[in-house]
Request: fold
Amino acid sequence: MTTSAPTATPTPTATPTPTPTPTATRIDPAILYWGTPVVLVSTLNEDGSANLAPISSAFWLGHTATLGFGLASHSLANLRRTGECVLNLPGPGQVDAVDRLALTTGAPQPNSWKLANGYRHVRDKFRHAGLIPADSDLVAPPRVAECPVAMEAQVRVVHVTDHALVQAEVVAVHVDPGLRVPGRPNRVDPDAWRPLIMSFQRFYGLGGEVHPSRLAGIDEEAYR
Ligand SMILES: Cc1cc2nc3c(=O)[nH]c(=O)nc-3n(C[C@H](O)[C@H](O)[C@H](O)COP(=O)(O)O)c2cc1C
Reply:
């Protein structure tokens, strides 16, 4: 006769308590700028002249760009009035010009926070930065001729909280020919495209590729 071991009454498994990474320290940073591409946003002022402002709160989902602006931004006022912009992406080669635009605003009267932190009004920011405006195809604001990427965009939605989130549809994309994959008319070569990244208010470039990507097995055309 064979005997089987008595079956133990199952005890409920306790939900594991998540333990923090032992080396992690809880902190309370004033900003959460972990590293996003710098975008030079061109818009039109009320008198038809161009404004140009660096931002880095930007990402793309499909052909919709989501852009974050402080409520005092003159670009935001222009976007809400005109509904159009160009999202120019500088590379590391344009970092001097981007830095010249820092601490400037197209708003004739900068708010008290900006004044206290060294901002000043600059009317012609293309000239101030030493950048050249180039005509756009489908929107009125100009592109930045020196930027390797420029996306013409039309505002679809503006969400206002303590900041403004602008959703804009990209309607035309211009790229430096050196960024294109040979033989593929609509493909950008990620080995050639080097964005300028802002991390915690400082400028960085990208290093090379760090690992093969499973996601890259999906043909880009599948996303149309
Ligand atoms: C690299 C960089 C990134 C910035 N990112 C943002 C941003 O994401 N959103 C924002 O509102 N301001 C950002 N700023 C600050 C704006 O450039 C600043 O508010 C400026 O006055 C806006 O210009 P405007 O008032 O003519 O629109 C950034 C500045 C720099 C230099």
Summary: The mean pLDDT is 93. The first strand starts at residue 36 and ends at 37. Helices lie at 74-82, 95-101, 112-116, 125-129. The radius of gyration is 24 Å.
